[in-house]
Amino acid sequence: MVFKEGVPVKGQMNRKIIREKLPRALRNQPTKVEHQLWQYLRGRQLEGCKFRRQHPFGDYILNFACLERRVVVELDGSQHAEEVAYDAQRTRFLENAGFTVLRFWNNEVFDNIEGVTEMILGALDSSITPTPSPPNPPLEGEG
Questions:
Q1: Contact 105, 63 (CB under 8 A)
Q2: pTM, to two decimals
Q3: 15 or 103: which leads in pLDDT
Q4: 71-102: b or e for each residue (b if 16 or more CB lie within 10 Å)?
């Protein structure tokens, strides 16, 4: 897949993921840490941004994604200590698609939810593309 900045990210997903209804199953059975973080992300509580849970993208299902700001939040449990190469490949894929990827260990969410949400806010703020100022009107007699 080829991605360009400014191109919508909807609809770019693996058909097998959709066919097997994995995102819905994962949303219906969140882990405790996913449930806790979702309480802070849902309902546009951070910067008015909409987050999606278990959002399919490419061959992956993202824990949390804000498509408008292209920010992905991934939660890593102890099994991820053994999946370093896989996680790095996944992160590269998402970054090549224009996403900022934040990874947190489960215990970070449980022990420091304020710090986690501050980091997410920082990523949301830095992902805003400033709107260029309109050019100054021509001086009198010009134009």
A1: no
A2: 0.74
A3: 103
A4: bbbbbbeeeeeeeeeebeebbebbeebebbbb
Class for domain 31-126, per CATH? alpha beta
Does 63 score more than 80 pLDDT?
yes
Q: How far apart are CA 91 and CA 74, in angstroms?
A: 10
Q: Tell me the three state secondary structure of residue 81.
A: helix
* Pairing assessment for the beta strands 60-66 and 52-57 based on DSSP bridges: antiparallel
H or E segment to which residue 115 belongs: helix 113-126
**What is the DSSP code string of 43-60?**
GGTTTT---EEEEEEBTE
Decide if 96 contacts 19 (C-beta within 8 A).
no
Sheet strands side by side (includes 52-57):
52-57, 60-66, 71-76, 100-105
Residue 109: pLDDT over 50:
yes
